[in-house]
Amino acid sequence: MARRRRIVAGLAAALAAGVTSVAPVGATPSPVNVGGGGATFLANMMDVCRALYNSNTASNPGKDVVTYASVGSGSGKSGFRTGTYDFGGTESAYGATETKPSNFVYVPLVGGPIAIGYRIDGTAPAGAQIKLTGELVAKIFAAQITNWNDPAIAAVNKATAVALKASVAANGVTVKSTVRGTNVTFTATMTPAALKRFKGKKITVTPVTDGTAGTPVMDAGARKSVTKLVILAEKTSYEVKAGTRVIGTLVPKAYTLGVNVTFPSLQIKVAYRQGNSGTTNNFANYLNKEFPTIWTKATSDAFTTAFPGTMPTDGTFQAAQGNDGVSNQVRDNNGTVTYAELSFLTERNISYAKVSNAVGKYVAPSPESSAKNLAAADVATDGVTTLNYKATDAASYPINAISYGLASTAASAKATAVKSYFTYFLNKCAPTQAAPTGYTALTGEILTKALAQVAKIGAG
Prior knowledge:
460 residues, alpha+beta, D-Maltodextrin-Binding Protein, domain 2, Immunoglobulin-like, 3 domains, nine-stranded mixed β-sheet, five-stranded antiparallel β-sheet, 29% helix
C-alpha cells in the first residue's frame, strides 16, 4: 500500500511540475505474492477461488499470486499472528488464552455444513441414508453409544407412516382435497365471517416434502369458494394458510416416509481432528450448547479437551490430520464415523447422515440447508458470527460453520493484495462456486458485515 501511495504521489507532483518522465498513468503494479494458511474446512473453496483469482486479469490486474496452506485453524491463527502467513483462515475466533495479533480483522468468507460422515457395510437396504437425532450424534461422539445396531439408532431409522388427512378447517376456512388418479383437487370455502377477517388476504396451499416447502399450488384471493386442480405430488403434505395464519396440513394420499434400515452388529469407531481445529470448535460448540448434560465441557479447538469424561484408549477413537485425514479414515475403515466439511466427504463418495433440527425434521447437509441455518445467525460488528442452533426453518441443517479470513489493517502492499482477493472471493467467486464445491455463499447481513470488514484491511 505504501509503495502504491508513493507512486500516486509521485505522479501528482510530476504533473504539477510539468514533468513527463514518470511511469504512465494506469501502469500495472508489480505482482505481489500473498501466502495464506489455516483452516482445512476452508481449503477446497480456497483452492477454487485462488486459482480463479490468480488467472483473472480483470479482478486481479496486478497479477498477484495467492497461495494457501491447509494446516488447520489453530496453525492458521498462530501463523498469521507471527507473520508466517499474510492472511489466516479459521472457523474459530482467538480464544481468551490465545495471544492475538495487533491491528487485524475477522472477515467471514464462506459457510458450510459440518456433515456426519460414516461407513457402515451391511446395512439393509444397502446404501440407505441413515438418520440421527442431535442427541444420538452427541452420544456417539461421547462414546455413550458404541455399536451401530444400538436400539436407539434403529428406532429413528424406521419408516414413518403419514396418514390420510383429506380436509382441514379453522377460523371459518375449510380446505378439502380429492384425489383422482394422478390429480388432486383442492377446494377452499369460507364463511361470511372468514371473508371479513381475511379480506385482502390469500388462501395458499403449499407442498411440503421432507420439511422443505415448495411453491404454492393454490394461491388465491379470499372468496367464498375456490377450486384448483393440480398434479398430485407423491409423498407430500400440503400446508394450508389464510394470509399468515396456518389452517392446517393436508395429506391427500397416505404415504410412507423413509425406509426401515437394519444395522449390522458393528463397533462404532470415531475419527476426530488432531490438534486445534475450527471444525472441532464449531462441532463441539453445537454439542455443548444443545446437549450440555452429555457434552459437559466448554467448547475448545481440541477434541480431546472438549471431550466429556475420559477419551477411550481401546483404539475406537483415532485422531487424523485435517478434514482430509478424518475423511480418509472413514473411507478406509468400516464402522467409522466423523464430522467434516461436506465437500471432503462427497469427493470420496462417503455417505453422510440426515440430522434432526430444532423442529424435529431430519435434514441432509447441503449448501441450501446450510443457508437456511445461516440466515438465522447473529453477526457482531466485528464479523464474528454466532450460529443459531434453534433455527425454526424446517429445511435448516443444524450443524454448520463460518470460515473467517484473518487480515491486517496496517497499510502495506500485502494488505492491499489481500483486500483485493477477499473482495473477489466474496463478490465474485463464492456466489458462483460455493454451492458446486459444497459450501454456502454468504448473503444478506453476514455478507454486508463481511464487506465492511474487508474495507478495513490495509486502511492504516
